[in-house]
Specification:
ten-stranded mixed β-sheet, globular, nucleus, single chain, transcription, DNA damage, Rtt109
């Protein structure tokens, strides 16, 4: 893994956020990056991006009463989370695929309010650690997941445990937003983009009547903004209006704090070809409601071949017949079975934007692409 200079071992980070008087055992399994189908469909007459995928699986167990008994105590799995990491030339995508609990954390005798906090802390710490470990200089990174409540994801039969607390759709969306808020707050807030005229005016007001260093000050301000890594959270719940979605995102710590979340999507910032048709702007994740809708819409394309992922049929311009824009795509998602009839799905992103690549790094990228 490409770790940052200030990265710490996962074990040390978990020890800081978990109760000191409780023993947890962690099992972390990972696979090396292997070539995988592209997340984004390529525009017509364009090759799909070369994409690599690696898998990370973290399981957590407890051994209640192990310190009070001479006999070997029974070990209980309490939680597991699966994360897929996709890497391309310009983007790293951390997709939280599945997470589930067994309810066996109740054996620790924690109150209901306390029993949820270790799982929240483990999830946030693990994702935050992966973000730091997988950052690349000058390359944007995004954490992506969809929150949809189910009785069980990874532990068959766990729903039969009366101690398992299953959140409903709305509760799960809020839970994941709070978990990922810790990732957002690991980094500086994004600066509001200003026009050149506004930046010059601000610089002039700082320097008074002396405008000799105006240009230099503007350059320094821009340089400072490029020297820090920023992060921002995004949420969309198909079928919900803006006012309703605002109730799900974490509030700022104070009224004067900059908002760290917004109720929209960042897809145009992430797609390799922002001007391409909508089908080329939406990533194709496994077992994702968006992906199932994408597959159905792709049947409208001429020469469509089922199961062919990453490209565009040669006789097609890449546009669907029914859905023409991203806004229409999200509007139609609200009528999908998974997003209506009293159910809802939250699509959540955290975009981490590092300082821009240097000229040398950009030149190296260009030379590698030509070789």
């Amino acid at each position: 893994m490409a770790s940052t200079p200030d990265s710490k071992p996962l074990r040390e980070l978990l020890a800081k956020v978990l109760p000191k008087d409780v023993s947890f055992t962690f099992y972390h399994f990972s696979t090396p990056p292997t070539k995988s189908p592209a997340l984004y469909s390529a525009p017509p007459h364009t090759k799909p991006e070369r994409t690599y995928c690696e898998s990370h699986f973290l399981a957590v167990s407890i051994t209640p009463g192990s310190s009070n008994s001479a006999e070997a105590a029974e070990e209980f799995l309490i939680f597991a989370i699966e994360v897929l990491i996709y890497s391309t030339k310009h983007l790293t995508t951390i997709f939280v695929s599945k997470a589930d609990s067994t309810g066996c954390i109740s054996a620790l005798g924690l109150s209901r309010s306390q029993s949820g906090s270790p799982l929240k802390a483990i999830s946030g710490t693990f994702v935050s650690w992966l973000v730091k470990e997988r950052q690349r200089p000058g390359k944007r990174l995004v954490v992506s997941l969809f929150a949809r409540a189910q009785d069980q994801y990874l532990f068959p039969g766990s729903v039969e445990n009366a101690d398992k607390h299953v959140l409903d759709d709305r509760g799960l969306i809020k839970w994941w937003c709070r978990v990922l808020d810790s990732v957002v707050r690991d980094y500086a807030p994004e600066k509001e983009s200003k026009s050149i005229a506004k930046r010059i005016a601000d610089s002039a007001s700082k320097n008074g009547s002396d405008n000799r260093h105006m240009g230099a000050d503007v350059e320094v301000d821009m340089e400072k903004s490029e020297d820090i890594t920023t992060a921002k959270g995004y949420l969309i719940i198909p079928g919900f209006d803006t006012h309703d979605m605002l109730r799900y995102i974490p509030p700022p710590p104070s009224p004067t704090s900059k908002p760290r979340w917004t109720v929209t999507h960042p897809l145009l910032r992430l797609a390799p070809h922002p001007a391409a048709p909508p089908r080329c702007l939406i990533p194709h994740f496994p077992d994702d409601p968006k992906s199932r809708f994408l597959d159905e819409l792709d049947e409208e394309l001429p020469d469509h071949v089922g199961g062919a992922q990453g490209g565009t049929p040669s006789r097609s311009n890449g546009y669907w017949k029914s859905v023409k824009t991203l806004d229409q795509f999200w509007d139609m998602m609200a009528y999908r079975q998974e997003c209506c009839s009293g159910r809802c799905v939250g699509f959540i992103w955290v975009v981490v934007t590092p300082p821009h690549a240097s000229i040398k790094e950009e030149a190296e990228d260009e030379s590698q692409s030509q070789s």
